[in-house]
Design brief:
There is one protein chain. The chain is of the alpha/beta class and 485 residues long. It contains 15 helices and 18 strands. The protein is globular, with a radius of gyration of 23 Å. The structure holds pyridoxal-5'-phosphate. Pyridoxal-5'-phosphate (PLP) is lined by residues 66, 130-132, 135, 170-172, 244, 248-249, 277, 279-280, 305. This is L-lysine-epsilon aminotransferase. InterPro entries: Aminotrans_3, L-lysine_6-transaminase, PyrdxlP-dep_Trfase, PyrdxlP-dep_Trfase_major, PyrdxlP-dep_Trfase_small.
């Protein structure tokens, strides 16, 4: 660790220098360092391989910065494009206040977003930094809408401040989102929250046939009855129903389109907006721009974040029934930066690449192979693995309990050098970059197979040299990997 003089450079000054071995001790003096015990080498890491700068250890990355790096690390298409790097540097030297000061870079990003991810029926866009702020602005839109809608119909404008939502939802850790997040208690305990109506989450168990289907249909009926009851109890006071199309952090809980569409119909009947949180599911992970389209949903507001590189909302449909909505009346929702310009420049180029490489279609194809691999693994380890599920690359499996799941995550990281995320009570979730290679995914499944085999008979786990990361191939383009899709 050192502080170096940079006197020879314009402006002079001193800058801190961190050698790889210093990084975590340096950080831990001031910030909580409870993440991976890895110092990411930002030069050597590439695609779906994260290299530890201290040791050179290579990890197969099946988590992609919590599903936020659509093209993996150091995508060659970005790194090898001097024109893009110049644009990025120009945007990065400043941090303009986007809502008040227009730039060409801002306009080009918005235009590209609308082309690649937009929905003509959701024409209003709003940008902010982070997924939690995205969801909170979606909620503000709904509160404002409901209050004005009440007023226009001769009802009290003070009503309309409640959010109907699901158990085991995760929507972030901000002032409003804490009240709708209810996964692990440590994330919400001791913080003041609103007492907003919450209904059971009728998660699907796979394969969803026979008794499993009957059970989910019964659970959906109960949840819909709870929702009806909430609307009756809080007359004119529920602004919206908010849900992730697939609950991610809560355990990769899949919901049937039938259920979500019934909730949307209920919202329409009770003059509440239908809001989906696509912060984790959005931008190709499930095999299309948004998961909600695959479920046949027509939301009024969609919150996004992560792979977009910044947060935000797109809105329309019933929002426009109220003339002075938050997208029309200045000052109702805004922030200094309105999403960072440097993130917008990176996002624009990433979206162009996702579009030209057809990475969403590719995620659908690769994801079905991954799911088939996980289903096969569940057949081979019936006592350990169950409920293999997935949409696109958003795949998951269940272990029997939290302790075993946590042990699998640990063994994968320490012995196999594979980074895979837990979710909910006992799930393992795959969150690879959209550019991951088919062989890398297969290597991840083989690593999981070895760990499960080891759990049954510990002496069977031989590999001193983890195969998955060592053999991880360099990032590939969609066309190289799978042929034109
Ligand atoms: C569905 C969902 N909503 C909201 C958030 C919050 O996003 P952020 O951590 O960027 O605030 C997350 C984060 O994981 C998420 O998965």
């Amino acid at each position: 660790m050192a502080v170096m003089s940079v006197a020879g450079r314009p402006g002079g000054g001193s800058r801190a220098r961190a050698e790889p071995a210093d990084v975590i001790p340096m950080l831990s003096r001031h910030v909580l360092t409870d993440g991976y015990d890895v110092v990411c080498d930002l030069t050597a890491s590439t695609g779906s391989t994260i290299v530890d700068a201290r040791t050179g250890t290579r990890y197969l990355d099946l988590y992609s910065f919590f599903a936020s790096a659509p093209l993996g690390i150091n995508p060659p298409a970005l790194l090898g494009d001097p024109e893009f790097l110049t644009e990025l540097a120009r945007a990065a030297v400043n941090k303009p206040a986007n809502p008040d000061m227009a730039t060409a870079a801002y306009a080009e990003f918005v235009e590209t977003f609308a082309r690649v991810l937009g929905d003509p029926e959701l024409p209003h866009l709003f940008f902010v930094e982070g997924g939690s702020a995205a969801v909170e602005n979606a909620l503000k839109c709904a509160f404002d809408w409901k209050s004005r809608h009440n007023e226009a119909h001769g009802r009290p404008a003070e009503l309309g401040g409640r959010v109907l939502h699901l158990r085991s939802a995760f929507h972030g850790r901000g002032g409003y989102t804490l009240s709708v997040t209810n996964t692990e208690p440590v994330k919400t305990a001791r913080f003041p929250v609103f007492d907003w109506p919450r209904v059971d989450c009728p998660a699907v168990t796979f394969p969803c046939t026979g008794a499993a289907l009957d059970a989910v249909v019964a659970a959906e009926r109960r949840a819909l009855a709870q929702a009806e009851e909430a609307f009756a109890r809080h007359r004119h006071d529920i602004a919206c129903f908010l849900a992730e199309p697939i609950q991610a952090e809560g355990g990769d809980n899949h919901l049937r389109g039938e259920f979500l569409r019934a909730m949307a119909a209920l919202c329409e009947r009770h003059d509440a907006l239908f809001v989906v949180d696509e912060v984790q599911t959005g931008v190709g992970l499930t095999g299309s721009a948004w998961a909600h389209t695959q479920l046949g949903l027509r939301p009024d507001v969609v919150a996004f974040g992560k792979k977009v590189q910044l947060g935000g909302v797109m809105a329309g449909r019933r929002v426009d029934e109220v003339a002075d909505n938050v997208f029309r009346l200045p000052g109702r929702i805004s922030s200094t930066w309105g999403g960072g310009l440097v993130d917008m420049v990176r996002s624009r180029r990433m979206l162009e690449i996702m579009e030209s490489e057809r990475l969403f279609d590719r995620a659908a194809v690769l994801g079905s192979d991954l799911l088939a691999g996980l289903e096969e693994l569940a057949r081979r380890h019936p006592r350990l693995l169950s409920n293999a599920r997935g949409r696109g690359l958003m795949c998951a499996v269940d272990l029997p309990d939290r302790a075993l799941r946590d042990e699998v995550v640990r063994l994968l990281r320490e012995r196999e050098h594979v980074l895979l995320l837990p979710a909910g009570e006992r799930a393992l979730r795959f969150r690879p970059a959209l550019t991951i290679g088919a062989e890398e995914l297969a290597a991840g499944v083989r690593a999981l197979d070895r760990v499960l085999t080891h759990l049954v008979s510990p002496e069977s786990l031989v590999p001193a040299e983890p195969e998955a990361a060592e053999k991880a191939s360099p990032p590939v383009t969609a066309t190289q990997e799978k042929g034109p899709l």
